[in-house]
Specification:
Shape: globular
Strand content: 5-15%
Largest sheet: 3 strands, antiparallel
CATH topology of the domain at 62-307: Cytochrome-c3 Hydrogenase, chain B
Structural class: alpha+beta
């Protein structure tokens, strides 16, 4: 196939004369793209010579919409960013509002935020591992991972009545007190979840087919991970020991004892297995948080429904399931943000796809894209 690629010319370079090359659109409706992502793939036979991600198919203008909402009304919009990690987006936004308005959050609310966000990390990683298994044809692992995720979702449904978009973390605290017996059920989940993780580790990561499909595929060096602004399991899979909970600690995380799992090869296998090991550490954090949490208020008392922070700006970030998630807010002194900007780890990690895919087979491209764990509500915003 030679010449210019029709309407896609704005996304692709002109193909050199005399060079036979096949150009294939993967997505945006194909399930292997993990959402509404389109990848323009240049192929030499079945070998990828170039892969260009094209985003924007899920753009909803959330950052712009925030300018016409009050600070509290923006919280449900953040649920629609990383929609498999909504608790994190709530928290990152609320921390920035609290920094901007000088709000002191009660200690019990901080513990509840940690508990629900570590549970959200587990649910998100189960989604990632399940889809990674589906990408390699391991349907059984997909079912096992989603069974573990469902237990977290049921706990969230009991807590706040929602299964996907929770609107739970609010400026100044959280929206609801935990139901009676909820912490005991969460602790039981943590005990059971460890057994599930061991089973999945043997079933999937110990499988020779998984190793053949994922090892030495999509190798990312530590230097490239840092240079490209990668974070979360994508960077830690390459051995970059960087986690905001440890290295720029916030909330009550300094009170907990936990480790930061890292990989050594920087391939798809290490990125996926880091997510598995992070679930063990999330269980440790949840158990410590529940044991340390004391009775008290869950919201800052006397906080007005219409917040009007002082004129100025603020930035805060947290460690989400995909990496460093930050929110920047500008206030003009009114009850609505003047400007909002989200620093999306999924967006930064997705930028690595052209680098990682080149030279691999088309079937490997699907595995590499899945190993980056993109969520396009957060990519497109």
């Amino acid at each position: 196939m030679t010449g210019e690629i029709g309407s896609d010319a704005c996304f692709t370079d002109r193909i050199e004369p005399g060079v036979d090359e096949l150009v294939v659109n993967v997505g945006p409706s194909h399930p292997s793209t993990h959402g509404v992502c389109r990848v323009i793939v240049h192929l030499d036979g079945e070998v990828v010579t170039k892969a260009e991600p094209v985003i924007g198919y899920l753009h909803r203008g959330i950052e712009k919409m925030a300018e016409n909402r009050t600070y509290l009304q923006v919280v449900p919009l953040t649920d629609r960013l990383d929609y498999v990690g909504s608790m994190y987006a709530n928290w990152a936004y609320c921390r920035t509002v609290e920094r901007l308005a000088g709000i002191q959050v009660p200690e019990r609310a901080e513990y509840l935020r940690v508990i629900v966000c570590e549970m959200q990390r587990i649910a998100s990683h189960m989604m990632s591992l399940g889809s990674a298994a589906a990408d390699t044809g391991a349907a059984t692992m997909f079912i096992y991972a989603f069974d573990q995720r469902e237990k977290v979702i049921e706990a969230f449904e009991e807590l706040c009545g929602a299964r996907l978009t929770y609107n739970y973390v609010r400026p100044g605290g959280v929206s609801f007190e935990i139901p009676e017996g909820w912490t005991e059920r969460v602790l039981q989940f943590c005990r059971d979840h460890r057994d599930g993780l061991e089973l999945m580790d043997r079933l999937f990561f110990g499988n020779v087919i998984t190793r053949d499909r994922m090892k030495h595929v999509g190798v990312l060096s530590p230097e490239d991970a840092v240079a490209w602004g990668a974070s979360g399991p994508v960077a830690r899979g390459s051995g970059v020991n960087w986690d905001l909970r440890k290295h720029d600690p916030y909330s009550v995380y300094p009170r907990f004892d936990f480790d930061v799992p890292t990989g050594s090869n920087g391939d798809c296998y290490d990125r996926a297995r880091v997510r598995l090991f992070e679930c063990y550490e999330s269980c440790r954090i949840i158990e410590q948080a529940i044991s340390q949490m004391q009775p008290g208020p869950i919201r800052t008392p006397g906080l007005p429904r219409l917040l009007a922070p002082r004129p100025g700006d603020a930035y805060d970030h947290i460690e989400s399931a995909r990496g460093a998630l930050g929110v920047y807010l500008v206030s003009d002194g009114s009850v609505r943000p003047y400007r909002m900007k989200v620093r999306s780890p999924a967006f930064c990690n997705l930028a690595l796809l052209p680098l990682l895919a080149e030279g691999h087979m088309l079937s490997d491209l699907v595995v590499i894209l899945g190993s980056l764990d993109p969520v396009f509500g957060e990519v497109d915003r």
